[in-house]
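input
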Amino acid sequence: MKVTPEMVKNYIQQGLDCEHIHVDGDGRHFEAVIVSKEFAGLGMLKQHQLVYKVLGDRMGPIHALSMKTLTPEQWANQA
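output
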């Protein structure tokens, strides 16, 4: 079964409280913008590790996942 951006989005939302999430991709390569209060106090590496932990075994068919992870405060200040 081909993985869709919507599936990746749903997987992440099932394990992470997201204020905003957007995922694009072609079935193997994905790009995500993820905004979560759960990232507060964590460095970028720890934030990405948290997302990978949420995805778990579902990462198997995903060849690459590029992420931009932000706290709600960082997201608000980006505009």
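quick obs: The domain at 5-77 is CATH 3.30.300.90 (GMP Synthetase; Chain A, domain 3).
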